[in-house]
Write a structure and sequence with these properties.
- This protein is an alpha/beta fold and about 350 residues long.
- The protein has two domains: about 5-95, Winged helix-like DNA-binding domain superfamily/Winged helix DNA-binding domain (Arc Repressor Mutant, subunit A), CATH 1.10.10; about 100-340, 3-Layer(aba) Sandwich (Rossmann fold).
- The protein has helices spanning about 5-15, 15-30, 30-40, 45-50, 55-65, 90-95, 100-105, 120, 140-150, 155-165, 165-170, 190-195, 210-220, 255-270, 285-290, 290-295, 310-320, and strands spanning about 40, 70-75, 80-85, 180-185, 200-205, 225-230, 240-250, 270-280, 325-330, 335-340.
- The strands form two sheets. The protein has a seven-stranded mixed beta sheet, sandwiched between helices.
- Helix 2 (about 15-30) packs across helix 6 (about 90-95).
- The two termini are about 45 Å apart.
- The structure holds S-adenosylmethionine.
- S-adenosylmethionine binds near residues 150 and 232.
Length: about 350
């Protein structure tokens, strides 16, 4: 179990966050995290294998211990002192500070426009300039940047959906397809991943007309199983006749009345016996921690209400809309799924 910090210790770590990330990145690059995940390793062993200076390495290890990431097993000499991960570190660090880091991608958004000005933001006197971000993104540059960040975080979402495949899209009789509508389907990357893995799926990617250029450039290669459908779910009904509707990281961006309205439209768009799938991070401490960037940045973007909901909230909305067989399925952190069936 990871350590939880008292406020002063946490604030000190946060204050020195850049140094902590530097340590983490070096530990990842040098292969230290992998070694710590494999089991207790002595300072002597680590420094010999990785060609590091033991007297410096112990200070480095103390940084990791101070972050609550490793446990020390003391011995008579420093060289014989052993360290081990408290929880697996290598894969988690790869996601957060590795070369494909989603966090780094997020950092390109103009959050600096808010830095030091939160009191004014909260008082309604300052916001993120519309030219750097609007919701939903409207100009090609904003669309490209936003959807690229979304697409980079798709691994756990795809894994969670594939886990639920037997419930949602069991293979149909020979020659038939399962028709899916991916509502607010980003740049089409998720749809493309799904049809590449599952040959009986046909996915329509429903998104704002402004995203057509991006989606069509992305999904050209698989065009027989993928199609872009332009529309605005705030202004019109959804296209209908689908076996499965995907709402991936969509409802969380809208306030309750709009989310409810969208679920009503979903009820008409899915065939009787078909499924609606809500996949997003639900309100629990771990997903909330990972949401810090967006909670910070979107304080300055009034058009996007962006809030994690708890599963009971969705359960209520779905049953009020008339959906049945509502179930929460564990996905891949931080994303879980709620599935519900049209009677
Ligand atoms: C947070 S992104 C999620 C994208 C994708 N589902 C994913 O998880 O990677 C929300 C998506 O909803 C789309 N969107 C926003 N407002 C919309 C609207 N009124 N009608 C249709 N799509 C909309 C955005 O363009 C964007 O692709």
């Amino acid at each position: 179990m990871a350590i939880s910090f008292a406020p002063q210790e946490l604030f000190s770590l946060l204050f020195h966050g850049t140094k902590a990330v530097d340590v983490l990145q070096a530990a990842l690059e040098l292969g230290i995290l992998r070694r710590l995940d494999e089991g207790p390793v002595t300072v002597a062993q680590l420094s010999q294998d990785l060609e590091l200076i033991p007297e410096r390495l112990v200070k480095f290890m103390d940084c990791l211990e101070g972050l609550g990431l490793v446990r020390q097993e003391p011995e008579e000499t420093l060289e014989d002192t052993r360290y081990v991960s408290i929880e697996p570190l290598h894969d988690a660090a790869t996601i957060i500070v590795g070369s494909q880091s989603v966090e780094r991608e997020r950092d390109h958004f103009n959050w600096e426009s808010l830095q030091g000005r939160l009191p004014e933001v909260l008082q309604g006197k300052h916001q993120v300039p519309i030219r750097s971000f609007d919701w939903p993104p409207r100009n090609p540059q904003q669309i490209k940047m936003f959807e690229a960040t979304m697409a980079q975080g798709l691994d756990p979402i795809e894994a969670g959906l594939i886990k639920a495949r037997d419930r949602l899209w069991p293979p149909p009789p020979e020659g038939q397809a399962v028709r899916i509508l991916d509502i607010g389907g980003g740049d089409g990357s998720l749809a493309q991943r799904l049809v590449t893995k599952e040959s009986h799926l046909w996915v329509d990617i429903y998104n704002l007309p402004e995203t057509r250029f991006l989606v069509e450039s992305k999904v050209e290669k698989h065009s027989d199983h993928l199609e872009f459908v332009a529309g605005d779910f705030l202004k019109e009904e959804l296209p209908s006749g689908y076996d499965v509707l995907l709402l991936v990281r969509v409802l969380m961006d809208w306030p309750d009345p709009i989310a409810k309205e969208l679920l009503k439209k979903a009820m008409d768009a899915v065939v009787p016996g078909g499924w609606v799938v809500i996949c997003e991070p639900f309100r629990k401490p771990a997903p909330l921690a990972r949401q810090l960037f967006w909670n910070y940045f979107l304080m300055g973007v009034d058009g996007c209400s962006s809030r994690l909901r708890d599963t009971q909230n969705y359960h209520r909305m779905l049953s009020q809309t008339g959906f049945q067989k509502i179930e929460v399925l564990a996905g891949e952190p931080p994303f879980d799924l709620i599935i519900a069936r049209r009677p």
